[in-house]
Amino acid sequence: MPIKHAIWKVATRPSPLPVSTLLNEQQLEDMIVSVPEILSSEWMLIGRQEQTGLGGRIDLLALAPDASLVLVELKRNRTPRDIVAQALDYASWMEQLTAERINQIYQRFSNGGKLDEAFKRHFDVELDEDTLNKSHQIILVAAELDDSTERIITYLNARNIAINAVFFQVFQYGKERLLSRAWLIDPSQTQVNAATTTSNSREREPWNGEYYVTYGGGRSWEDARTYGFVSAGGGSWFSQTLRMLSPGNRIWVNIPKTGYVGVGRVLEPSVTAKSFKVKTKAGEKPCLKVLSDPKRFSRDANDPDKAEYFVRVEWLDTVPESGAFYEVGLFGNQNTVCQPTAPKWSHTVERLKTVFKKWNKRTLS
């Protein structure tokens, strides 16, 4: 069933706002370029109206925090099924983009800007060109789609093709017009699909059942070791993949630019900092009263998107951050949680099992 959304005036007898329209879809594209948060606060726009060499132009190109690419296609006046076919065709072009070509695209978009400098300003992390375009996702923008197109998108997404649709609707409110947004599929699921596959399908292999976890950003690893957790926050892109973890899952934890520091088993699903409690010698206490940097986690505790989320973990084997294990060839990723299908992940897990020798010990839970 096509997604429909409405805005209602709050009153004793609520009444819906009348539906309006934009002048054209170019106006929506202009607004997204002007304020990218309309589409997503987690992405950085790097290109617009780029020639693909396939007889067309992409509408928008963006980067996610893990340096994966996001292709954004507006429906314009194409038929519903045609927009999916064209987006998939453009994705085949996007898959082949090298770091050099992506830099050139950004230079044209920014009138000579440098991609690495812009990436650092936007995400507050250094851009590693080796991670550029290792995966991608496709976002279709429309006012509405027909039933069959929604089924196609849902079918592809359910089979790990990172494709989604976002709907914008305009409503009239007096002399003003209001813009609303709704996603066809939870964006976290599309992000997961992008994070768990590589751009080159020939490099994929079946997932081995082991979860990769990034833990960093200046968070205290000693807190995580002592009180049994992993966490992420500062934006939904970073925290939402924690929802992938379920009790019993085994995780291998990596601190970016440092190395692997532990292996553990998940005990509980993710909860916000306000709800998470830790065990101390004086009994169970709220984490915000115990952790070494409580201000960091309390600052956005009331904002569901920016809040810190915690997953309780029983550690099987860990080392201090100063003893982190790193060597060339190990898997790394900026996503907080992923189910890697790259051959490098299987190699990494087998190598880590020789370092964290208690990886399979019986747990107490």
Question: Can you walk me through this structure?
Answer:
With 365 residues, the protein is of the alpha+beta class. The protein contains 10 helices and 18 strands. The protein is globular, with a radius of gyration of 22 Å. The two termini are 44 Å apart.
Quick overview of this protein structure:
The chain has 365 residues and is of the alpha+beta class. The protein contains ten helices and 18 strands.
Indicate the topology.
Elements: E1 8-9, E2 15-16, E3 19-20, H1 25-34, E4 44-48, E5 60-63, E6 69-74, H2 80-95, H3 99-110, H4 115-123, E7 136-142, H5 147-158, E8 163-173, E9 176-183, H6 187-195, E10 211-214, H7 221-227, E11 229-232, H8 236-239, E12 250-255, E13 259-266, E14 271-272, E15 277-280, E16 283-286, H9 294-298, E17 309-318, E18 337-338, H10 343-355
Parallel strand pairs: 6-7, 7-8, 10-12
Antiparallel strand pairs: 1-2, 3-8, 4-5, 5-6, 8-9, 10-18, 11-17, 12-13, 13-17, 14-17, 15-16
Shape: globular
Please give the share of residues in helix: 25-40%
* Helix run count: 10
Terminus-to-terminus distance:
44 Å
**Number of separate strands:** 18
Q: Helix- and strand-based class?
A: alpha+beta
Report the average pLDDT across residues: 88
- Give, in order, the helices and strands: EEEHEEEHHHEHEEHEHEHEEEEEHEEH
- Rg, nearest Å: 22 Å
Q: Could you give a short account of the major beta sheet?
A: 7 strands, mixed
| % residues in beta strands | 15-25%
